[in-house]
Amino acid sequence: MSHKPHLNYIGGEWVAGKGLATNVNPSDLADAIGEYASGSAADVDRAVQAARAAFPAWSTSGIQLRADALDRIGSEILARREELGALLAREEGKTRPEAIGEVARAGNIFKFFAGECLRLAGEVLPSVRPGIGVEVTREPLGVIGIISPWNFPIAIPAWKIAPALAYGNCVVFKPADLVPGSAWALAEIISRAGLPAGVFNLVMGAGREVGQAIADHAGIDGVSFTGSVNIGRQVAAACVARGAKVQLEMGGKNPQIVLDDADLGVAVELCAQSAFWSTGQRCTASSRLIVTEGIHDRFVAALAERMQKIKVGHALAAGTDIGPVVSASQLDQDLRYIDIGQTEGARLVAGGQRVVCETEGHFLAPALFVDTTASMKINRDEIFGPVASVLRVKDYDEALALANDTPFGLAAGIATTSLKYATHFKRHSQAGMVMVNLPTAGVDYHVPFGGRKGSSYGPREQGRYAAEFYTTVKTAYTLA
């Protein structure tokens, strides 16, 4: 990357913030990726003013203009997937193959919503009153504030920005200050896609200032937020207080059931991937492995053996299965919960220790606890790291009850060869997304994403369901 500072993008121009922050590689703490602008509340205000000025023309612009712009963005992302994937792996810590896959997903999302520009549909209905026609249409919401997390630094921004633009909104985008590189690269691509000045704006900086300013600003009509539960609730309170629309994706404590009749090899592999891939730093990761007693001992032995083959190392190194934890503070949190689990009486059967590599980084061997109970903190709190625990249960009914015994409801999985249990679980799992014989972490870009209970609030993200948040419905009556 360039040695020049990476600036914010406001009103069609690259502008400095109040300072600069250094982006550091968690695989190699001596590797500074670049310096990125730190914005302020005043920068947010300028971005909102630019977006509001651009909205009237953009919101009524031709749909082909929007479609072409989004298609260009998607095409460039896909053409540069190797380069952008290397940047993503370098700043966030997921492995190069995973990072390239995430970049491809971002490109495909923009391509999908380029098509959605041309599929804006409504309804024409008869009135109950003779001689009157009724039209139901969707119109852009207005100026959208987008606040994205660090764990998917290009895919999550893509699945928020693309529909916002597709439906005719203007955007003020704040990426996670821990991983600004991928977001800045995406913004630079968007800046050359032919959008009018002010339609898309990037304001990097700390959440406590830039994020708060977005949540509070009267000129922002809706906020789409992905992040922690506590911050999400603050964003929601700020938006509700001023009557703004809000969409939240927050935490998860996702269950993965393994029944006696499961294919052991399938169950072990999907649990390893769900719990530990991407260093467990996915809101859809399964950290509660609920296993019936007939297969429990064989499953634990097989998973512990599988974990010995997982290679922890530099995210860009060939053969690495799991890269570093994203930051020192996140690593401290993971290690603290590993201590808590042992203090609570759980038995650590694999991993849980720091890993020494050729470079200094935040490396942690994935941890597996057994002999755990549902009330333990390691089974209640979202750790957001490569830490999983096994809960032994008697049968499917107990497994289902335990799976649903959580304040969260994002994803849930079951490993079984029984159509009866699979069908029952799909209906009775209290989660927004259910996987049968598949990892919970791994979803498509063209279908709805979201959860229930404390995991999500507001309309679903992705696919055609994105229109629910990014548009407002108008009903028009006409006397014939």
Explain what this protein looks like in three dimensions.
- By secondary structure, this protein is an alpha/beta fold.
- It folds into 2 domains: 8-250 and 455-479, 3-Layer(aba) Sandwich (Aldehyde Dehydrogenase, Chain A, domain 1); 254-436, Aldehyde Dehydrogenase, Chain A, domain 2 (3-Layer(aba) Sandwich), CATH 3.40.309.10.
- Helices cover 39% and strands 23% of the residues.
- It is built from 15 helices and 22 strands.
- The strands form 6 sheets. It has a 7-stranded mixed beta sheet with strand order 14-15-16-13-12-18-19, sandwiched between helices. It has a 6-stranded mixed beta sheet with strand order 9-8-7-10-11-21, sandwiched between helices. It has a 3-stranded antiparallel beta sheet with strand order 5-6-22.
- A hairpin with a 2-residue loop joins strand 1 and strand 2 (13-15).
- Helix 2 (63-79) runs antiparallel to helix 4 and helix 3 (81-92) packs antiparallel against helix 6.
- The longest helix has 22 residues, at 96-117.
- The termini are far apart.
- 54% of the residues are buried.
